[in-house]
Amino acid sequence: MNCKQNERINQVKESTLVVGIDIGSTTHYARAFDWRGIELGKVFKFSNSREGFDSFKNWMQWLLNKNNKSDVIVGIEPTGHYWFDLGAYLEDGGILLVMVNPYAVKQTKELDDNSQSKNDCKDPKVIAKLVIEGRYSAPYTPDGVYADLRVLTTNRKRIIRELTQIKNRIARWFAIYFPEYKDVFGDYESQSSMLVLR
Q1: Taking the model in full, what pTM does it have?
Q2: Where do the structural domains in the chain lie, given as residue ranges?
Q3: Domain spanning 3-132, CATH class
Q4: Contact predicate 72/15, CB 8 Å
Q5: Tens digit of each residue's pLDDT, the chain (198 residues)
């Protein structure tokens, strides 16, 4: 066990409520546990909307009060983009959000009931257990110019991939319909080649 994992384990104290959430496109499922892994309450289902987030926050506050807890760590499995709104909501509310590796969730599922089957009620428990064990990381959500750079980088990679696909299609057409074209023009994108093609 490394030093960083020990630090993460130490973040989960007796006063900590650990919540695991299975993220869905329209509905999320949450389960809450104490630092030893004892479940506090039942599965809580809430929608991926502001009203759903408010009800989730109220549920967590109720559990905090009922079980004499003072802080919360919310763990999620970051699959897709459906967690972005919830992540922003929790960050604005000062609630610590952490992420567990989807591969770790898949591997750990089998320990509970000897099955890797996916289940909206089972996944939040696995996620929370991984958080308690310190097997999580903090999300990095850039803002300002860094957020813009992330979007631009993603778009650039997509455009380069699409451009490569288009060039490959053109090369294929030349190979099928004008195999001798490469002998005349080394590069079909050269100025003289483009004039001939037009």
Answers
A1: 0.70
A2: 3-132, 145-197
A3: alpha beta
A4: no
A5: 566 777 777 778 888 899 999 998 899 999 999 988 889 988 999 999 999 999 999 999 999 999 999 999 999 998 788 888 998 899 999 999 999 988 888 878 777 666 656 666 788 999 999 998 888 888 777 778 888 898 899 899 999 999 999 989 988 988 898 888 888 887 878 888 888 878
